[in-house]
Amino acid sequence: MRYAIFDSLTRDPAVALPAAAQQWPTQPVILVVPLPPGGSVDPLACLLGTKVGESFGRPFTSDNKPGASGSVGTAFAATPKSDGYTFVFEAHAVNP
Questions:
Q1: Boundaries of domain holding 43
Q2: Which of 15, 33, 72, 84 lies in the 20 to 30 Å Cα band around 59?
């Protein structure tokens, strides 16, 4: 029994070898803010982008794309680009 477990661990490379962690991000990151500049979300996105960029060692930039209640910015982020990573940064609040 002991040999069967050892044999299966040495033959299956997915089990026997630890997974090597990949560095992320390998390209610049864009935080799309679908709201106009100067609002309450814009400075938060800039501050977060700066701090996270320093932590990861890659630029995290915020890009304002206002219009159509956020649809313009969301559509911009949804189109695939090969030059980096794109995330939508938006805040919603509900007043009870």
A1: 26-96
A2: 72
